[in-house]
Amino acid sequence: MADGWLSVAELPLLILVGVTGVGKSTTLALLEAAAPPVRQLPDRRALADLLITKVQLDAGEALRAVTDRAERFDYTRRYREQNPGGLAQALSQLWIDPARWPQPLCFDGLRGADEVGYAAQQLPHARFAVLDAPDVVRVERLLGRGDRFDRLSTTQSPTEGGTLPGLDVPGAGALFTPDEQARLSALVTGGAVSAADLRAKVAIVVTERQNYDPAAAIAALQRLAPGRTVVVDTTQCTPQEAARVISTYGGVYYREETL
Fold this sequence. Notes:
Layout: E1 6-7, E2 14-17, H1 24-32, E3 39-40, H2 44-58, H3 69-82, H4 86-92, E4 95-96, E5 105-110, H5 112-122, E6 127-132, H6 135-142, H7 172-175, H8 178-189, H9 195-211, H10 214-224, E7 229-233, H11 239-250
Helix pairs in contact: 1-11, 2-3, 3-9, 4-5, 5-10, 6-9
């Protein structure tokens, strides 16, 4: 390694933790606009792309871009079979040129108990900012944005008696309460979104929750790194408030006018 480079394990890295739709992108944009600005390392997607390429090479598969979420989950699962720390294990192996990457630094982001547990132990100077929101809110937020990764190949299931429009997704009934299902389907019956769009977003959240449990991740951090962890419910505060809370734990300081 070149002289002067530092291992990520030596740095007071701010790590965002959370699944899709909890508000990480909005909060991170505020952190990047802070004074001094947070500098984001290559994010989870960029790191996952490299790991997917490695899995493809190891398996003798043709190299190709993977944007379907379910397929990306499968590739990262295959990576975790050989590397139990998953994305956190890959993150811990990074080295930083401090001249190019001055602090404060942030990584977006980790998910699930295995990843955050590994990071809590292998990155002793890192601080963790968990952003959380109910699954039903996450679906609603996904319906309001266009992201090239917010897609998942779905096949419509035959609608059984009583199934509400847009919720005929395996696993949806176990994830959402009857009131939440009615709340989401009202978006279809009210004409706000199509059943196909709702179905696609519900499938994203269901598939992600089958791979990562936010509650388990929070519990792991509160057990392994209680003094280095802050949990923010993004339904109970504004993005500006979330950024201020995170700044206290992440070593980022704002001028008031930046927020």
